[in-house]
Specification:
One of its GO terms (molecular function) is kinase activity. The radius of gyration is 17 Å and the shape is elongated. Helix content is about 15%, strand content about 25%. Strands 1, 2, 3, 4 and 5 form a 5-stranded antiparallel beta sheet that branches. It contains 2 helices and 5 strands; from the N terminus they run H-E-E-H-E-E-E.
């Protein structure tokens, strides 16, 4: 079976822009790739709030406060194995545990695999994070 069918309550139209998404997310989502892959379906992010954990001494936050400046980054997320939403949630939680603050997340789009076609459909999304670096 290629991909899993999503319950009707989780389906959403991908043609509606998400108002909180600004440029680079908005530009990336609207850009047409040369392979002309169009996302078929999307899920709302997660019904479970991300847990905030105290960072350990080995985390990014260990940097000197006089040298550290908040940095903004965008990270692509995706999974096609098992509990796809669960794996993406776990990735966001692990970033939070390491002192990387997840500020915003996009919706999740289900896409067919490219290149290696004998695999399950992917859930893809992105997140905006802030971290401290030198």
């Amino acid at each position: 079976m290629r991909g899993s069918r999503l319950p009707p309550m989780l389906r959403r139209s991908v043609n509606l822009p998400r108002p909180f998404v600004k440029t680079p997310f908005h530009a990336i989502c609207k850009a047409k790739s040369s392979a002309s892959v169009t996302p078929r379906r999307t899920l709302p992010w997660t019904q479970h709030p991300l847990k905030t954990n105290s960072p350990s001494e080995n985390d990014v936050t260990k940097l000197s406060k006089t040298q550290s400046q908040p940095r903004l980054a965008y990270i692509a997320l995706g999974s096609n194995l098992g509990d796809r939403v669960g794996w993406i949630e776990t990735a966001c939680n692990k970033m939070s545990q390491r002192g990387i603050r997840v500020k915003r997340t996009s919706g999740l789009w289900e896409t067919e695999p490219m290149y290696v076609l004998d695999q399950e459909n992917f859930l893809n999304g992105a997140c905006e994070v802030s971290l401290f670096s030198q």
